[in-house]
């Protein structure tokens, strides 16, 4: 007769197998480069899906998903951006890609795209871990985040880059409609074939990397977000501008996206104070009753996004040098205004046949119109067409 303890082990093992709950209820979602399904794959659109979870049920020959990160140093003179991608990215179908770009204070840049054989998202009860791994090249990028997004740790080991990046959230996780996760009316759809959420609109960022033997140390602010698209970016977008920033007591996030699918412009603007959203809108048209905002290009600053001086070919510079943002609540007659000026270009490369995609870090100033004005730091991305 089996002993009680053996019976107990059998019962526990059977329960674990039935629920998938082995250590801390972890489950793995693994994708290998080149593996695909034919036809439509479901893109997750439930407001309850955790922001770091895989958002597409497999990959076909066109869809993809990204986990993107940014950082700007406290002095605005160095910056970085990196993205973990699965699926179609930059002309590569069914890829498992890592993209990294940095700029040092003296303007020297580094940019790299490397490809993993396999990526795994391990979702546990309190934390989620992503691993992009290539056993041949030795590349191993991981991110580990608490499921409340308060802390994210990224570790890198590769032939060119090694070190860590940390992000401690100072703003809440938000959907494009500005509601705080989790929320029954949170909507992660932003534009046709494009879903987007901000896991960490703004956080305290620290990078300690060694890139081809040269240290890259960054202490400042940053943020991270998710996108999942049915088709490659170049197929769905005509242009877009994205900015995140910390200025005085505020953190903010704004997006403007011109869809190639329906020709419409999609917009979102969110202003936060600590963990509270104090302004949110999807509206760009002036109203006497509803909150609205604007996110316009500015071209009277001194820094333009441009090709790396050491690059073989040089693209036209950006037509603008920053942004002006306004946020208006007619009911309370509150109006905020912020100006963003680029301080450094992190990257600027060709996107499609007639576009350019850039990453920037910048200075931001502003506040409540008629109230105290503040200065801070911003970062973001921009895509421009001829
Ligand atoms: C899940 O993936 C992690 C790597 O992220 C690995 O360490 C672990 O062994 C995997 N677990 C299972 C059950 O495959
Ligand atoms: C997808 O469809 C094509 C054409 O019918 C077929 O050759 C291919 O094997 C299919 N791939 C998968 C993964 O089912
Ligand atoms: C892939 O799935 C998306 C839905 O997410 C669908 O719109 C698209 O047409 C599919 N692509 C292919 C090649 O089947
Ligand atoms: C710029 O800074 C980087 C990092 O410190 C250094 O490796 C590089 O030599 C510098 N370049 C110039 C032209 O001074
Ligand atoms: C993994 O790295 C090796 C060596 O750099 C490379 O040849 C291979 O293409 C990479 N795997 C994928 C799926 O790209
Ligand atoms: C990849 O890096 C993670 C984090 O440092 C580590 O836990 C894991 O063991 C590494 N995987 C391999 C295969 O080296
Ligand atoms: C960066 O990491 C290295 C290696 O772990 C460590 O020796 C160094 O003190 C770190 N530097 C900073 C500024 O944290
Ligand atoms: C640049 O233009 C904006 C309005 O577009 C204005 O608010 C700002 O003062 C101008 N900056 C300079 C340095 O002239």
UniProtKB/TrEMBL annotation:
Signal peptide positions on this chain: 1-18
Keyword Isomerase applies: yes
GO molecular function ontology, one term from the record: isomerase activity
Ranges of residues in domain Diels-Alderase N-terminal: 54-228
Domain Diels-Alderase C-terminal residue range list: 232-381
Keywords: Isomerase, Signal
Similarity comment: Belongs to the Diels-Alderase family.
Protein name listed in UniProt: AttH domain-containing protein
């Amino acid at each position: 007769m089996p002993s009680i303890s053996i019976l107990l082990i059998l019962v526990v093992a059977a329960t674990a197998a039935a629920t998938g709950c082995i250590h801390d209820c972890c489950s793995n979602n693994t994708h290998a480069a080149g593996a695909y399904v034919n036809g439509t794959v479901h893109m997750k659109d439930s407001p309850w899906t955790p922001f770091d979870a895989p958002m597409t049920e497999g990959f076909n020959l066109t869809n993809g998903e990204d986990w993107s990160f940014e950082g700007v140093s406290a002095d605005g003179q160095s910056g970085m951006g990196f993205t973990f991608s699965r699926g179609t990215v930059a002309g590569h179908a069914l890829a498992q890609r890592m993209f990294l770009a940095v700029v040092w204070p003296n303007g020297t840049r580094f940019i790299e795209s490397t490809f993993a054989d396999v990526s795994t998202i391990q979702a546990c009860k309190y934390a989620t871990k992503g691993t992009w791994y290539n056993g041949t090249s030795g590349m191993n990028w991981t991110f580990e985040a608490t499921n409340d997004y308060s802390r994210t740790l990224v570790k890198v080991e590769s032939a060119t880059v090694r070190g860590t990046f940390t992000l401690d959230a100072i703003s809440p996780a938000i959907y494009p409609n500005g509601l705080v996760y989790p929320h029954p009316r949170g909507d992660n759809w932003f534009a046709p074939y494009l879903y987007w959420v901000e896991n960490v609109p703004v956080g305290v960022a620290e990078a300690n990397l060694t890139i081809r033997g040269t240290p890259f140390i960054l202490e400042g602010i940053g943020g991270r977000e998710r996108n999942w698209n049915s088709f490659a970016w170049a197929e769905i977008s005509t242009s877009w501008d994205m900015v995140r920033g910390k200025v005085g007591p505020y953190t903010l996030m704004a997006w403007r996206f011109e869809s190639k699918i329906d020709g419409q412009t999609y917009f979102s603007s969110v202003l936060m104070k600590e963990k509270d959203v104090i302004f949110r809108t999807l509206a760009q048209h002036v109203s006497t009753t509803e909150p609205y905002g604007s996110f316009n290009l500015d071209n009277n600053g001194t820094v333009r996004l441009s090709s790396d001086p050491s690059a073989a070919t040089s693209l036209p510079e950006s037509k603008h040098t920053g942004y002006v943002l306004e946020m208006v609540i007619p009911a309370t007659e509150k109006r905020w205004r912020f100006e963003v000026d680029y301080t450094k270009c992190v990257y600027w490369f060709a996107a499609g046949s007639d576009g350019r995609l850039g990453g920037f870090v910048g200075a931001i100033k502003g506040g409540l119109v008629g109230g105290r004005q503040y200065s801070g730091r911003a970062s973001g991305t921009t895509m421009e067409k001829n």
